[in-house]
Amino acid sequence: MVATTSGSREGWSSRTAFILAAVGSAVGLGNMWRFPAEAGENGGGAFVLFYIFCVLLIGLPVLLSEVLVGRHGQASAPESVRRVAADSGASKGWGIIGSMGVFAAFLILSFYCVVGGWVLYYIGVFAGDLFQTGLTGGAFEGRAASDIEGLLPGLFGNGGLMVGLNLGFLALTFFFVARGISSGIEWVAVYLMPLFFVLFLAITIYGAFTGNFGEAVSYLFTFDFSKLTGEVMLAAVGQAFFSLSLGVAGMMTYGAYASRETNLGKTSGIIASADTGVALLAGLAIFPIVFAAGLSASAGPGLMFASLPVAFQQMPFGSLIGLLFFIMIFFAALTSSVSLMEAPTAYTLEKFKLPRPVATAIVGVGAAVLGVLSALSFNEMADFRPLAFIPIFAEANFFDALDGVTAKLFMPIGAILTCIFVGWIADARLIDDENGLDGALHQIWRALVRFVCPIVLAVILAFGLFG
Ligand code: PFF
């Protein structure tokens, strides 16, 4: 059964499939790789608690706004916004929200696949180790700690390998997106997300019994108000959006494949809870290792990749657990990268009336070109600072600049415009009919979307950029 409303358009085959796909989009490298790295770079507790505040007060209402625009529009993100605008008697110019989002999703896709490539590399490293040393003992038996610590710098220093892995991960993403919604994207979500959760729970429970949680808990949850600067707040809101796939057309695109019967309010709650739960547990899994191994919490993008192999070296069955861990991250990353690729692909195929594989290939070639620049920015192009004229991005290489601009500019701006559009411009009856909320919850959501979210976001943006 295909549960979409409009004739020939493909859709999710069930509500569960939609939930798994949307949770799959949300849960990804953002939770396991970006969240700990951002928390570490922004001082721990203050960042984490403000991040949770952002998820509840801003992320959740914006998530519901995005999926409902998508479901009403039943099209690519720009066209969905235009349809809601047209049905509300407003200007179709609001479609710019969707167009900006599609462009930002494309930018994120390009560097996301670079990190996806690192995951592939570590799968190879652990698989090789398992093959060589067998099941017993920790990973990398007999090898010096400096060897293990050298893995990531070794990878970063090898431009050819970085580019190859990046293109490999992009090609895998292409394969599933080109197959379409039900036999590609939904397939990935329905099979890989449950596997991800099983592996994730097993590994975190294992970590809880073997690791030292104390220091990590106090680092992540001690709220030091003095550390809450404008820049930290902007980083936290950016992380909340990145993690929930918001502000960049990702959730609008997926909402467009949802059926009329799906309760979007409830579904949004499930997506946000699953996503935040995984991020916090990932933090609790990674920081005990970071502290125990004497690594710096503010190591930046390499944090997860540098810290985990050290822990797996000391763990019983380390090579096997390490391999399973990176396979699990690979599943989570793939279910997110397909959503990043789907947003620009849905737009390209609709706009130019192209067959899906052709539209996907066009997006893929563009992402490959940008991805190469990101992959090389860890060594060969390390001195290239594309945004040196913007103070908060002055030090950023190409990779960091794309990451910073999308999470700290495109996402908050996209979300502010979405709130204004859904809260003030769109016909309230149309919105009420789509959102699946009643009574007090509905009133709270409306107040958040109309007043709290746009104002708080504008203030954070101003403070973060100029404060
Ligand atoms: N939410 C994904 C993650 O946390 O890894 C990243 C992402 C996917 C961002 C899709 C934006 C998006 F549209």
Total count of helical runs of at least 4 residues: 19
Domain module tally:
1
Q: What is the approximate shape?
A: globular
Structural class: mainly alpha
Element-level helix/strand string: HHHHHHHHHHHHHHHHHHH
> What value does the Rg take, in angstroms?
21 Å
In percent, how helical is the residue content? over 70%
The CATH architecture would be Up-down Bundle
Number of strands: 0
Largest sheet: none
The overall average pLDDT, rounded, is: 92
- What compounds sit in this structure? 4-fluoro-L-phenylalanine
Strand content: under 5%
Low-pLDDT runs? 1-7
**CATH fold group:** Amino acid/polyamine transporter I
Through-space gap between termini: 53 Å
Question: CATH top level?
Answer: Mainly Alpha
Characterise the protein shown here:
The chain has a single domain (3-466), classed as Amino acid/polyamine transporter I (Up-down Bundle), CATH 1.20.1740. The protein is an all-alpha fold and 467 residues long. Helix 4 (77-87) packs antiparallel against helix 5 (96-133), helix 5 packs across helix 16 and helix 8 (159-178) crosses helix 9. Helix content is 76%, strand content 0%. Bound molecules: 4-fluoro-L-phenylalanine (PFF). 4-fluoro-L-phenylalanine binds next to helix 1, helix 2, helix 5, helix 11 and helix 15. 4-fluoro-L-phenylalanine is lined by residues 25-26, 28-31, 105, 108, 242-243, 245, 248, 250, 336, 339-340.
